[in-house]
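Hi all, posting the design record for the shared folder.

TITLE: backbone redesign
STEP: 1 of 1
STRUCTURE INPUT:
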């Protein structure tokens, strides 16, 4: 077996293992239920708001912008919790030591867990497709904004997953991992909110690393390569930190 084939085999073995862990436990279904409850609430209330007050011919354009802006908050509140068990649970049970003794690279282990969590997240997001389908059956509309919005949701979800995996690699306490992953994700969310608390130079820098700033174009119906690149760099940055964390664990030779 060649090195590339062995690497691919290890990667898929981790993906399958994690997917089984997700879908054979009630955890993913509980998180999905919370996600759908919140997203359904926002869809209903946002739609009622625009139907009640009316905004002319741009009603659906304005509606989708508001809906995806609200839906990103639901992603923030749920996706980080999908990541907390990926390394934390392994460390708590002691199985991480066994995994690290396998002829497997840290990168294969990390990306296997990352892809599995991404699939679980797409599983949750896929249920929300029913909202635009139902609305389209009543009032046809241009799907451009909707598609851009979902691309943005996928990008921001991947960013949260990368951040959560890094936190998960640092602790064996599920509570600490969950609150820390949520807290750091929230920090990158609100960096540029209070524009009166700092000068314009600092504010411009904060806006460059704020997820809210980079998500806006997606909510407005534009898929901007600059914004996609931001989320790609964000994912790669936290992936690098996670791999360094795994390496440090091997150097210490302990939990």
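Okay, here is what came back for every position:
SEQUENCE:
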């Amino acid at each position: 077996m060649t090195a590339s084939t062995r690497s691919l085999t290890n990667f898929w073995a981790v993906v399958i293992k994690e997917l089984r862990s997700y879908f054979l436990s009630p955890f993913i279904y509980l998180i999905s239920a919370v996600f759908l409850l919140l997203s359904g609430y926002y869809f209903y209330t946002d739609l009622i708001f625009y139907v009640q007050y009316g905004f002319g011919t741009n009603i659906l354009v304005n509606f989708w912008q508001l809906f995806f802006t609200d839906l990103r908050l639901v992603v923030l509140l749920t996706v980080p919790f999908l990541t907390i068990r990926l390394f934390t649970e392994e460390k708590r049970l002691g199985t991480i030591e066994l995994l690290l003794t396998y002829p497997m690279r840290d990168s294969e282990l990390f990306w296997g867990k990352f892809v599995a969590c991404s699939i679980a997240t797409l599983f949750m997001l896929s249920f929300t497709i029913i909202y635009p389908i139902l609305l389209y059956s009543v009032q046809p509309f241009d799907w451009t904004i909707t598609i851009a919005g979902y691309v943005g949701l996928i990008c921001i979800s991947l960013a949260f997953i990368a951040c959560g995996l890094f936190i998960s690699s640092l602790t064996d306490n599920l509570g600490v991992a969950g609150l820390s992953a949520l807290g750091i994700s929230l920090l990158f969310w609100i960096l540029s909110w209070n524009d009166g608390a700092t000068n314009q130079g600092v504010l411009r820098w904060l806006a460059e690393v704020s997820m809210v700033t980079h998500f806006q174009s997606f909510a407005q119906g534009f898929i901007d390569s600059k914004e996609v690149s931001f989320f790609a760099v964000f994912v790669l940055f936290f992936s690098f930190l996670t791999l360094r964390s795994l390496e440090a664990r091997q150097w210490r030779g302990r939990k």
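COMMENT: Residues 59-93 form the longest helix (35 residues).
Let me know if anyone wants the other runs.
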